[in-house]
Amino acid sequence: MEAEIIDISPQSKKRQKSSQSLQRITIKGPEYSYSHLEMIFDPPFDSPAVVDAITWRTTLTNSLMQCLGVVGAAIRIDLLHIEGREAVLRLPTTDMVKFGAAVSGFVGTSEGRNIGFKTLGNSAFLMGLIGKAREEDIWDGFGN
What is the pTM of this model? Predict the structure, then answer.
């Protein structure tokens, strides 16, 4: 990860309450990127489907293997959070474009159903991804 550190000198002795100097850090090249995906089934389940970690891992590996071969299957993916049919993943920033191409064009089968992925968001920072996903929750019930 490449970062730039800048020392910020205090404005005056009156404003400075501690002897510590302030620093501003700018992250120029994050090591990891984050992706928020939804697993799509056709025909859909009658009840809300809960997809476990093994199914996520297997389906993601299949999509990477189908599009990119053995090299794609070797991309390191961490499942950070699974909720229903949605998951938040962490993967190396250098592999983000290849990953996006593999999951967006994937159609697989499991138990007689077609499986695909819908990308709900991508970000270099986890807070940017989660904040975007929860944006609508802020305004639910506002003005009622």
Answer: 0.75
**d(C-alpha 3, C-alpha 5), whole Å:** 7
Q: Which residue has the tokens 């007689």?
A: 112
**H-only helix segments in the chain:** 53-73, 96-104, 126-133, 135-139
d(CA 79, CA 1): 21
User: Which architecture does CATH list for 31-139?
Assistant: 2-Layer Sandwich (3.30)
Longest dimension (CA), the chain: 72
Give me the mean pLDDT over the 92-98 stretch.
94
Spell out the domain ranges in the chain: 31-139
Does residue 64 register a pLDDT over 90?
Answer: yes
